[in-house]
Amino acid sequence: MTTYIISHKYGDSSIGALRDLLNTAVRATSGIDRGYAPLLDDPFDIHVILSTLSFEASKHHVKRFQRFMWAQINKVDDHLAGLETSDRAKLGELTKQLQVISQNADSHLASADVCIITAKGIRDAHARLSPRSGNPFTHQQVRDSIDYVVKSMKKQKLWFLNYKNRKDSTMSLVYNLVTQQDAANNIELAADMKQDSTSMSAIATLTMAFLPGTFTASVLGAGVLTSDIGPGIHASSVWWIWLVVSVPLTLFVMICWWWYKQKKNQVGVAQTAPSESRPPVRRANSSTSFFGKSRSFSLGGFSFSGRP
């Protein structure tokens, strides 16, 4: 008598399909031979059925992954073709989604490796433990089914490697688009700064042209020099008041400007200080998946889990 112990999560679709398959086979052969157990001619029949069911269930998650990946790649192609404006926020969101694709591709690759190793283990165990007597056709059917699962998972792994390479090229394209947009913004900013510099030069030129005349008019208008006393130009008796007030006030303004420049330079140096002096901030690693919760399923009597 062969006893099977299958470890699985609650509500596993592969286990439910296996149960329905065996119940259907038992009902179909109930009138033929009561002692006959359908689909169990070989001790590894349950392993083979579970392996095939798990592989078929993985196709659904592969299709979801493909739809999500191509949706993001098509968005990048629209940006490249000019159908959408190259907004930096949109490109940043695309970068996040491509990173999600990379994480899920790695998860699928790990699951495929586990499936291949498990299926090969079942195949090797069947080769060692299968009885030499019995129906050779049944034993060959089990071997062929396991070989089918192994080859199919290898092909699926190759597809995911191709998807990951496509993601890498798309990520590089998004990076180039962002770089080109930054370069265009820098060129526009440089043009605006040049225009501002031209305006400031014009203002400085006008200031230098009118400043001597303004200074002379201010001195003469203050009454420091006068010609009302007699012939010629005479200095006022209170001319020193203008000198005592204007010189200290000018020095005070220059000192305030120098102090402001020193404080501004100190703030700039503090902001650009190396980050080694700051304590490192530890952050918990987090990953995002568009598939939601992780999915664990059984393969040939062995259980493993992975993000679908």
Write the layout of secondary structure elements.
Blueprint: H1 13-28, H2 45-81, H3 88-129, H4 136-221, E1 225-226, E2 234-235, H5 239-271, E3 295-299, E4 302-306
Helix pairs in contact: 1-2, 2-3, 2-4, 3-4
Question: What are its keywords?
Answer:
single chain; 308 residues; mainly alpha; two-stranded antiparallel ribbon; 5 helices; 5% strand; disordered C terminus
Structure overview:
Mean pLDDT is 76; it is low at 281-308. The protein has a two-stranded antiparallel ribbon. A two-stranded antiparallel sheet has the order 3-4. It has five helices and four strands. The chain has 308 residues and is mostly helical. The longest helix is centred in the middle third of the chain and has 86 residues, at 136-221. It has helices spanning 13-28, 45-81, 88-129, 136-221, 239-271, and strands at residues 225-226, 234-235, 295-299, 302-306.
